[in-house]
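Suppose a colleague, Dr. K., hands you the sequence of a protein chain of 267 amino acids and asks what its three-dimensional shape might be. Before reaching for any lab equipment, you can write down a predicted structure in token form. Begin with the sequence itself:
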Amino acid sequence: MAVNNNYLPNTISKVVEIKDDSPISSVLFVNNFNFKSEKPLSSPSNLFTYNAKFVCGSIRGNEGPLRPGHYDTDISIYNKQNYPITLFWNVVFNNYNSSNSIIKTIDPKQSTGVVCKDIRKVAHLNAQDTDLIEGFVIIEIEEMNIASGNKASFANEPVSVQVFYTANALDSLPQETLVEKFVFQIINDSTGKIPESFLNKNLEVSTRTDLNSIIPQDFKIKKTLSSIYNLTDMEIKNIEVVVKETDLGVGNMIDDHAISLLRLTPD
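The predicted structure, expressed as tokens, is then:
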């Protein structure tokens, strides 16, 4: 018996019994080839999920893998489509409960963001609380336009999500400061704490200075010597210092600052 090329042969035998009380029987043949091509067993999911790691707050000691400093996270979301996109986001905190989902709509070709202030708000934390918090911001988008036939114009994912991380070990931002340089000599040291090779020789030291402040030059030098050689107030009074030259310049604080940018792909 010939078989149509569009049908797949079945290797399992079938028995058709014809009885006198039911002389007519039938066998069903299924076109598996066309059935599979027209209707896949599983359709692609229209749910896009982005998992954005966040670090917010300050570390003051050596309690964690991150070095002491101030950490911030900025999650930016850009709608690449020509129609509004609706998304849900919630926060999963490390060793803590998850927040409720928040719904947000982004207009076409517009962007929005989630920053540490928003994360602290959903965690019901005090705005002045700077302790470190970590976890993930989960962003979910169910893109219905794929199912409605717009997949040809759909560019891989509905939105672009990028995470910007910053870390700064300084309490304040770097700024220009006045730097005063002194050339001086140590004429007498009754403490014996300063090396003899430094006596009666030109030495140089630079210190920060403030505008509109009146401080004796030798006091600034002695203060520096006190911190280096662990001198007491009485010992520093017994050291004789002579200033030879002074110079004033502008310097910058060290910027112990790091930034990084990460582009997320959906699950």
